[in-house]
Write a structure and sequence with these properties.
The chain is mostly helical and 642 residues long. 63% of the residues lie in helices and 5% in strands.
Length: 642
């Protein structure tokens, strides 16, 4: 049954609640890229609000989660009930015709760029597949975001969370609750790749929707930047920088697809506010997107105020307030109250000032850009690429599609990052989709220049005949592709395939039966429950300092643990079977062991420990690099200040 709960946990985070919300509100009627991205986002938002509400009343327990799953199952059965006459149709005939039409009616350049974006998606998918069964192991993923998830899992608000919002961590906690164990982490970890893939999908959808090649170029730019700045393990790890950029770009996407329509779209406005609020509830940087989207909507509403009465404007304002209050203010309000009562730290001064180590504003900028240049250890080669990106970004000011975005979102955010958050280029991640967007459209200026030059030569004129408009808005997209001949040669194959498949209508009971058979087969083959748990526990034993962990397990397996362990080795509390013996500095009663990191221990404490060792009140069990495990004889007091 474990594999069944794994499947349910995965779909709960990515599909089920979002599907029910989207279909009930009739936000988008058809199955499309847009539809799946919306239901993914709605699922995460709903789950987070569910976990927050239940935890607020100390009700986030398995029975409450299973009641939710039962309700969702009933709603799904009702939606797909046979009398509703809903079937999923796999129409291969239409599929083949669509593919043929796509190649026939689009320019070769548009097609090649589209294929290139699909290759980019495959690269990201490869990263996920190669790390499919891994647990969280990078510092912030283990020590912050997953630590928060463990707090939610135990039906309590995260401790020492500062102002860090919790959409992602609360979703992981829900998955752990469904599966019955926080040690099975690969399910939560595997949803992380969907955020970078989702951003790529947004670019692809815009390219197909608006028939414009520059969106595909933006997707390629996005992939290049992400692959340069971040190692593959970061793209699939438990960091929320990529999720916040996905939600932020999704909020922009909703408004961007409506920009050519003169009237104010209330539904699009509320959707953009919802996704921007989700960005703010994912990481603090999302507040910047929320402010940007709010100002944008107010501007559009003011511009089109003639189509509304005062009463309708008031209703829109109330709806926006309720959305932001529910998604954003619920968490931040909770933090403000906790901080005011002295239970938490704000942490604002630490992350905006202390971490910069007295650098001036200019020095912060220099440090941040140097970190970008030094990414992956490449100290000089990316300099020219950085300049090119900067130039294209500025050229984006001269294209109508990217002008306002570049001027009012990208440039101000880069300045804000440089002054306050440049200690880590991860903090720039929110802007990466927008930088890629602006840079791609900044390419339009040199392209027009090249077009002008080509028009003066015979070869150039021939080239332009094949691809009249690089923008793809008119001309190029609708020109016959040179690939059409190869398509025609395959017509007989396509026709025979049509006759073979025609269209296949699958009823929901048939789909459910096939799904059930697949689960049963996988449960007894690739995903045997004991093997899954053993695999996850084995990996969890390696997080942090693997050599130190081996020593700890070796000693405690052979000698046992007859008391609590006090340590500031940050990963100790998350080690399977050992973490349950860890105690904090504030609760050191009954401590029998002290794991010391003497590379950071101050001299006074070291001197005190040395005296205790001489008098045999302390006994060194083992030493490894800067660590030593000390046994406290007769439960003497633990030295503080380590």
């Amino acid at each position: 049954m474990l594999f069944v709960f794994i499947i349910i946990a995965f779909f709960q985070m990515t599909l089920i609640p979002g599907f029910l919300v989207a279909t009930h509100l009739r936000i988008i009627p058809t199955f499309s890229i847009q539809f799946f991205l919306y239901i993914f986002a709605f699922s995460l938002i709903f789950n987070s609000l569910f976990v927050f509400t239940l935890t607020l009343f100390h009700l986030f327990v398995p029975i409450a989660v299973y009641i939710l799953l039962l309700i969702e199952a009933i709603l799904l059965i009702y939606y797909f009930y046979p009398s509703q006459k809903r079937k999923i149709t796999l129409d291969f005939s239409s599929l083949f015709q669509s593919v043929r039409t796509f190649f026939k009616t689009n320019s070769w350049l548009y097609i090649l760029l589209f294929i290139a974006t699909l290759v980019c998606c495959l690269v990201f998918i490869k990263y996920a597949i190669t790390r499919f069964k891994e647990v969280f192991y990078l510092n912030d993923a283990v020590l912050s975001w997953n630590r928060f998830a463990l707090d939610w899992y135990h039906n309590r608000f995260p401790t020492e969370a500062w102002f860090y919002p919790q959409i992602i961590s609360s979703n992981w906690a829900l998955a752990y609750n469904i599966m019955g164990s926080p040690q099975i982490q690969f399910v939560a970890r595997n949803i992380m790749i969907f955020f970078s893939l989702g951003t790529l999908a947004l670019f692809i959808d815009l390219g197909l929707r608006k028939k414009n090649s520059f969106y595909f170029i933006a997707a390629i730019f996005y992939s290049i930047i992400m692959n340069y700045l971040f190692l593959p393990d970061f793209l699939t790890e438990g960091y929320v920088d990529i999720p916040v950029s996905f939600f932020g770009f999704l909020a922009f996407y909703v408004m961007h697809i409506r920009e050519e329509i003169s009237s104010f779209d209330i539904r699009a406005s509320l959707l953009s506010i919802t996704f921007a609020s989700a960005a703010a509830a994912t990481k603090q940087a999302g507040l910047y997107i929320l402010i940007f989207v709010l100002v944008w909507n107010v501007f559009l509403l003011t511009k089109n105020k003639a189509q509304f009465t005062r009463k309708s404007i008031l209703k829109i304002a109330i709806a926006i307030f309720l959305i932001i209050s529910t998604i954003v203010f619920s968490w931040y309000g909770n933090r403000i109250i906790n901080i005011a009562q002295g239970h938490e730290k704000a942490g604002i001064k630490i992350v905006t000032q202390d971490v910069h180590k007295n650098r001036t504003m200019i020095e912060r900028f220099q440090y941040g850009f140097q970190r970008i240049l030094d990414a992956k250890g490449k100290k000089s080669s990316p300099v020219s690429s950085l300049y090119v990106t900067g130039i294209l970004l500025l050229l984006g000011l001269f294209h109508k599609s990217s002008r306002n975005l570049t001027l009012f979102l990208v440039i101000p955010f880069i300045i804000l990052w440089g002054f306050f958050f440049s200690y880590d280029y991860r903090n720039l991640t929110l802007a990466i989709p927008f930088i890629a967007f602006s840079s791609a459209f900044g390419l339009a200026f040199p392209v027009r220049l090249i077009n002008t030059v080509l028009q003066k030569t015979a070869f150039g004129k021939k080239f332009l005949e094949l691809n009249k408009s690089f923008d793809g808005v008119k001309g190029a997209v609708f020109q016959k592709s040179p690939l059409e001949n190869s398509i025609k040669s395959q017509t007989s194959t396509i026709n025979s395939s049509r006759k073979l498949f025609s269209s296949i209508n699958l009823s929901i009971p048939i789909i459910f039966l096939l799904f059930l058979i697949s689960i049963i087969v996988l449960n007894f083959t690739l995903f045997k429950p004991p093997a899954i748990i053993d695999n996850q526990v084995t990996q969890l034993k390696k997080i942090g300092n693997e050599g130190l962990n081996i020593q700890l397990y070796s000693y405690f397996d052979s000698h046992g643990i007859d008391g609590k362990v006090f340590s500031k080795y940050p990963f100790f509390r998350f080690l399977p079977h050992l973490g349950e013996y860890w105690v904090s500095e504030r609760d050191s009663n009954g401590v029998e062991y002290f794991l010391e990191d003497y590379s950071v221990t101050n001299k006074e404490i070291l001197k005190a420990i040395k005296e205790k060792l001489k008098t045999r009140e302390y006994q060194v069990i083992f030493r490894l690099n800067q660590y030593r495990l000390i046994k406290l004889n007769n439960q003497v007091s633990v030295p503080q200040g380590n």
